[in-house]
Write a structure and sequence with these properties.
428 residues, alpha+beta, Rossmann fold, 2 domains, five-stranded mixed sheet, 15 helices, elongated, binds histidyl-adenosine monophosphate, Anticodon-bd, HisRS/HisZ, catalytic activity, acting on a protein, nucleotide-binding
């Protein structure tokens, strides 16, 4: 019997996993500079959290959740996104009482959605996201957007398009909702069953429907921007002014609604301008969610955040020919000649690794020539050659691969010589 990997998932193998580490490290560094702290929440949560948090009229909740009963008959769900869990933790841990406000958090981890797999759309994917809770200052909106843009730019991605919109505050949204109902109601029977159910509950979701997206009423639907009250208009203007001052280009798209229910005021997406992969061009999405903490049982608290998937980020880098791996990981390869030298290897490797070098050697019983070949293939910066004769004299050969230069050293001189060699390599 053979096993296949579940649809919509992938193994990340050596050669790829190094790229993931670079992305994750870049994200950690970036968050340190922006003063966001890491939070790690469970992979599964009570199902009700997502029904409440993400919204029970969304595709995610209606069609895409990995929901299961545990042995205690509790309904649990593999998290489809990270915001509701972070807010659940914010409320449970009473973070509104923390001294430093707003509470600025970030996370990286797998999310699960039962989607139709295609290029850039997986059933398990890894999101990096940030959430800032406790401030309704439009400067935080600009900060979150800037952080998202900077991650891509730092990794070398070009041709990004930042699209923003405002979904307005409660009052503006209510006015828009009524206008949408009036717009769609007379012909709602031409729409799918989901949209019919959404009409009175959440007509904004109709605009996000994948089935009815080409219906003629879609293009002429009332735009939220025409229903923003004074506060929301002012807020949106300020976010735009901050972005302009940071010289972050953006376009306002009044049709951007996002697929989750919790948004209000600022909504944004970062897309690839130009060639995407398959049908997909969206790399990241986020926005403000000022009512969410309350919906999840906490005090009235404003919040904003975004998330991106590392899969899409890496695909975009690949499309643009950006190679993240610049250097071989291996400092040193040890080649031995003779039984005594071979038996000395474990101890020598152990010492060198303790000293901080990345080191490997042959475990396949290869001849010296084949060992040299392996060292070359692994792109080691230095090769140590230890024969029984050298060992008897307490000596070892060091070959610098960049220059081909070889030196015979006392074993005691090895650490300093390797350190100098690697420093030369770094400066080159
Ligand atoms: P979202 O738009 O559902 O928002 O997802 C954010 C990003 O996750 C997308 O832009 C995309 O890069 C990635 N993504 C989503 N689904 C998939 C998939 N099936 N395969 C690969 N990548 C995917 C959220 O999840 C919100 N929690 C974002 C947020 C945080 N809003 C406020 N704070």
């Amino acid at each position: 019997m053979s096993f296949t990997i579940p649809r919509g998932t992938q193994d990340i193998l050596p050669g790829e996993s190094e790229k993931w580490q670079i992305v994750e490290q870049t994200a950690h560094d970036l968050c340190r500079r922006y003063n966001y702290k890491e939070i790690r929440t469970p992979i599964f949560e009570q199902t009700e959290l997502f029904a409440r948090g993400v919204g029970d009229t969304t595709d995610i909740v209606q069609k895409e959740m990995y929901e299961f009963k545990d042995r205690g008959d509790r309904s649990l769900t593999l998290r489809p996104e990270g915001t509701a869990p972070v807010v659940r933790s914010y409320v449970g841990e009473k973070m509104h009482g923390w001294v430093n406000q707003p509470v600025k958090l970030y996370y990286t981890g797998p999310m699960f959605r039962y989607e139709r797999p295609q290029s850039g759309r997986m059933r398990q994917f890894v999101q990096f996201g940030v959430e800032a809770l406790g401030s309704a200052d439009p400067a935080v909106d600009a900060e979150v957007i800037a952080l998202a843009m900077e991650l891509y730019q730092e990794l070398g991605l070009k041709d990004l398009k930042l699209v923003i919109n405002s979904l307005g505050d409660k009052e503006s949204r209510e006015a828009h909702k009524q206008a949408l109902i009036q717009h769609f109601e007379p012909r709602i029977n031409e729409f799918c069953a989901d949209c019919q159910a959404r009409l009175t509950k959440n007509p904004l979701r109709i605009l996000d429907c994948k089935v009815d997206r080409d219906h003629e009423l879609m293009g002429s639907a009332p735009a939220i921007l025409d229903y923003l009250n004074e506060d929301s208009t002012k807020y949106f203007k300020q976010v735009q002014e901050f972005l302009s001052a940071m010289k972050i280009p953006f376009v306002v798209d009044p049709t951007l609604v996002r697929g989750l229910d919790y948004y209000n005021n600022t909504a944004f997406e970062i897309m690839l301008d130009g060639e995407g992969f398959g049908a997909i061009t969206t790399l990241a999405g986020g926005g403000r969610y000022n009512g969410l903490v309350e919906d999840i049982g906490g005090p009235e608290t404003p919040g904003i955040g975004f998330a991106l998937s590392i899969e899409r980020l890496l695909m975009a880098l690949e499309v643009q020919g950006v190679d993240l791996i610049q250097d071989s990981q291996l400092d040193v390869y040890l080649v031995t000649l003779g039984d005594k030298a071979k038996n000395k290897a474990p101890e020598l490797l152990y010492q060198l690794r303790k000293q901080g070098f990345s080191v490997d050697a042959d475990y396949m019983g290869k001849k010296m020539k084949a060992q040299m070949k392996t060292a070359n293939r692994q792109q080691a910066h230095a090769v140590l050659i230890l024969g029984d004769d050298e060992l008897a004299e307490g000596k070892i050969n060091v070959k610098e691969m960049a220059t081909g230069e070889q030196k015979l050293l006392q074993l005691g001189e090895l650490e300093a010589e390797l350190a100098a060699l690697l420093q030369r390599k770094d400066e080159a």
